[in-house]
Amino acid sequence: MNPAASSSPHPAARLAVTGDPTVRSALEKALVFDGHNDLAWESRVEAAYATDGLGEVAPHGRFHTDVPRLRRGGVGAQFWSVFVPTSLAGADAVEATLEQIDFVHRLVAAYPDDLALARTGDDVRAVWADGKVASLLGAEGGHSIDDSLAVLRVLSRLGVAYMTLTHNDNTAWADSATDEPVHGGLTDLGRDVVREMNRLGMLVDLSHVATTTMHDALDVTAAPVIFSHSSCRAVTDHPRNVPDDVLLRLRDNGGVLMVAFVPSFLSESWARWRHGGEVGPEPRVTVQDVVDHIEHAREVMGVEHVGLGGDYDGFVRFPVGLEDVSTYPRVLEALATRGWSADDMAALAGGNALRVLDAVTSGGR
Length: 365
Fold this sequence. Notes:
This protein has helices at 21-29, 39-47, 67-72, 90-110, 121-129, 149-157, 188-200, 211-220, 244-253, 263-266, 268-275, 287-301, 328-337, 342-361; strands at 32-37, 75-81, 115-117, 133-140, 160-164, 203-205, 226-230, 256-259, 306-308. It is of the alpha/beta class. It has one domain (16-361): Alpha-Beta Barrel (TIM Barrel). The strands form two sheets. Strands 1, 2, 3, 4, 5 and 6 form a six-stranded parallel beta sheet that branches. Strand 4, helix 6 and strand 5 (160-164) form a beta-alpha-beta unit. Helix 1 runs parallel beside helix 14, helix 8 (211-220) packs parallel to helix 9 (244-253) and helix 12 (287-301) packs across helix 13. The longest helix has 21 residues, at 90-110. The protein is globular.
């Protein structure tokens, strides 16, 4: 049974913009639970962390995210990334991560009729029942803890529900997918980080990490893990995507791959165009490319292990038709044309992420 299902529709489901009855039924069972959104960092860069105007569409001219578009997109739970780049290190990284956490808390306080903080699956259900968007925190990159388990524990106490083990560069204890390998995966400290995250009831996020790190983390973890914003390497050969042998282990682990909408992860021709200096016509990337990754993940693992992790405000361009957070129903509509049932779409949209959150946070302390 879908763990998000209830006897009556979620109050916020009616706000999603879709005319497809199967999609409408899916969103009445489980709203969209997105794995990764970088509004906090974009707000730092573009608006000095201001929260005003985010109740309006395109308040600062370039964001992909605001409250009305979350509502139109059927979003019921959002992992807000409290990201800092690896150019910030040591105490500077810790400080900036705390600023990011503060922004999310202030964002929620600024829009109390629409947003509410959440940490556990039960929190998410309570927020959904109140007709609001559950707002969770995810730290993107182990450099945010400055190699300190004590800092990791403090982040957990502040409500951070997941940590991505690396960002684009290696940490002192884990190899990244987009850096030269140094450790061969996780070091002893890296394995201790995973164990401590299990103990704290924090989700271990394996987006951005090297394949060796994926395997090492799966060897160590006693709880399901997530990929908060990655896609399938068998469909698009990109180092940020997940190979099938890891997907099979993720299935056995009980975790979830939250498929990202970043064009580089979805289309090899687009990635070549981008990294080749954007010469010539831009290759067309659409919702169908996202659906191809979702369906491959379902074929390998089963529908119970696939979710959505758009990465909005974390990249400049998104697929045609998926330009901002209001467009999640278009993904579900495309799946409906491929024969997906409402129950399977509900599992993808939010039920699977909620199941994993339940499994991890129920054991934390």
